[in-house]
Amino acid sequence: MSDIILHHYDLSPFSEKIRLAMGVKSLDWHSVTVEAVPPRPDLDALTGGYRRLPVLQVGADVFCDTEVIFRALERIKPAPTLYPQGEGIAKALSLWWDRTTWKPAIGVLVAHIGEHLPQEFLDDRRDHYLGYDISKEGMAPMLPAYVQQLVAVKEWLSSMLAQNGPFLTGDTISAADLTCYHSLWLLRANAGAEIIDSQLGLGSDITGWMDRVAAVGHGNSTEISTSAALEAAKEAEPDKAHLPQGEDPSGIAKGTRVTVTPDDNARVPVTGTLVAANGQEVVVAVDGDATGTLHIHFPRAGFETLPA
C-alpha cells in the first residue's frame, strides 16, 4: 500500500483530530503543510477543487472530510480501532459536535486573538468559506451567546465522562473523543488554557480528559513537498481495496458525471465520474495532467451527491 500523506496546517483543529488519529494507531505518515488561505493549486489538483482541510492521500486515493479519513485509516490499520463501542455513537457525536460548536468556538477565539488574524484570512472565511464575518468586531455582539452555547455542551461532555469515563464512550479512546477535543484544543492553544478554562468553566474532568486525549500523540511524521505528493499520486493507481461495498441508495448509476458538495459551508462542488457509493461513502474519479486518474472519496453524511 502507498504511503499515508496528510495535507494540513498546524492550527487547523480538524487537522488536529486526524493527527491524533495517527497517534491512536501509531502510524507513520508524511506531512504536507499547506496555506490556511487559498490559492492552493497543487492541492486543488489532488482534490478537484475541494477547499476544506485536512485532506488525506494514499497514492492515487484522496479522502476529503475527517469522517471519511477516519474510515480510510480504519481500513489501513484496523487495530486499535477508532470505534471501540461501535461506529454509530462516535459518528453521531462527532457530527453533532462539529456542527454545534464550530461557530461559537470561532466567536470566543476572535474575542481573544481576533486582532492578530490576517485580513486576507478574515476576507476568505467571510466571502468563500463560512459566509459570515469572523472579525473581532463582527462577532463581538454575540459573544455572550457563544459562551452560553459552549458552556451548555461542555456540561454534556462532563455528563458523558461521569457516566462512561475516562473517555466519552467508555474505557477506550474513540473518534468521538478526537472530535470533541479539537475545538477546545483550538481555544486553549491560542487564547491560553487558564483564560479559556475560566471563561467556559472547564473543570478537572474536562481538562483531565483533554490531557488523556493529547497523550496519544501524532504518530511519526516526515515533512514532504507538495510536488512529492503530486508525484506519488501520478505514480500510483487507485486502490480497489478503498472502494466502498454495496449499492448507492440514491440510485445514481456508476459512470454518471456527478458533483459532490458540502451541505454546510465551503460549498465548492467537486465534479467527477461516479465510481462507487454506498450509504456511507461516495467515490468519484477525476483525471488531471499532474496526477493521472484519482479516486476522490467523500462521506455521505454532510455532503450532497447529484448528477452534474
UniProtKB/TrEMBL annotation:
InterPro entries: Glutathione-S-Trfase_C_sf (IPR036282), Glutathione_S-Trfase_N (IPR004045), Thioredoxin-like_sf (IPR036249). GO terms for molecular function: transferase activity. It comes from the Bacteria. Keywords: Transferase. CDD domains: GST_N_family. Residues 2-81 form the GST N-terminal domain. Transmembrane segments: none annotated. Signal peptide: none annotated. Residues 236-265 are annotated as: Disordered. This is Glutathione S-transferase. The lineage of its organism: Bacteria, Pseudomonadati, Pseudomonadota, Alphaproteobacteria, Rhodobacterales.
